[in-house]
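Standup notes
- HV: blocked on the assembly model, inputs below
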Amino acid sequence: MSDETRTAIRAFIVENFLFGDDSQPLAADLSLIDNDLIDSTGILELVGFLEERFAITITDADIVPANLDTIDRIAGFIARKQAA
Amino acid sequence: MASVRSFEAGDVDAVADLFQRLLRKSGQPANDDLKAYIHTLFLDGANRDAGLFSRVHVRTDGTVSGFLGVLPVEMQFEGRRLLAANCGTFACDDRDSDPFAGARLLRDVLSGPQDLSFSETSNDISTDMWRTMRAGVLASYSLEWLRILKPAAFALEAVAGKVSAARLLSPVAKLGDAILCRRGGKQTWSHYAPLAGKADAFAATPADNAEFAALGVELVAQFPLRPAWDQPTLEAMLKHAERKALHGERIQHIVRARSGKPVGLYLYYGNPGGIGRAVQVMAAPGQEAIVIDCLIRNAHERGLVAVRGRTQPQLLQAMIGKKCAFLHTSSTVVHARDPAILAALTHGQPFLNGLAGEGWTRLIGDRFG
């Protein structure tokens, strides 16, 4: 997983869920759910973004916290999808 | 791992419980009547041939945490038969701690075998989710029209919805309304005056389900994108709609010209002293205002304090000048993968809401048990 991937994910989260506020560092292992950064609509937005930006197809079974709860997990998930 | 799968008979108790707690906001457990109805509506009513089912979200431990009810609707557009998913009943537990459930359910249902999907009762959270899935929000279908007939009694009834002791003041409200209405004159926002008008040349009379359905099938044909109703289908829906104990007595009328020719129909529920709820108003092209006038006049004659219903574009046009207020409580949202169908839904004035929505089911307005 590249830094470029993480940067793109982080930028999307800051822009869409923090409304552009990047004053606080967004740790790569910070839980988006436990910290109330993402709701049901946010998950759909994130999935749509990942499919479009990284040209991957996300199935229903992929939409779980193990794949999408932190920047690290999202980056790992993308890497696995692209390698498959 | 948590999953989304088709709704099964073994899920009925859990889904009835979700409905009762999250949508009815009741502390009472779901009773057998509600469970049986959910079975009838969402299991017996599923389109097994097309593989169109209601869906549940199941936690890792096997318990149900979310439900998206799907009512299959055969529709028609430019001679094509379309399958629609009417997705009205959407409830998820643990929304804050598990936002994945709602997201997965909606994504799963919208990727089903149907040509189009819609809901007429989408709350603000669901509407945002539908929008993210590239659904359209139909503004002219998403308003509640409200015609106040007796202002003081209406204000009292609105308060009594929260504090029932307020009804003790009803003699005062009656007096206030009598003074207001004695002024007569023209129609105003504040109250209704039964003035002479075009509607006097028409008569609204009770109709049984067969007559009502026959006219409904005829009137819906004017819409390019519409439910492909036949008489038995519509009669079966009207059978469901026979009772809405929470909304009041059912008034199912056909409006006719003096010649006997039918020009429209309406179906509403309401008791004297209460607020009526219209489920369906349909009219021959150009006769919408007449049918609305007949409905409002009937509600006034029966002693209702106000009447409300959901807008459709033709009705919205005809309500201009009728001193109706318009409010937004929930949205009509539509989704289709085919851009031509989505355009017909968002710009083509489809026939949606009411009998082509969820208003006919007992889940809206009936008491169970």
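- HV (later): unblocked. The CA atoms of residues 305 and 350 of chain B lie 31 Å apart. The two ends of chain B are 36 Å apart (CA to CA).
- Next: hand off to the docking folks.
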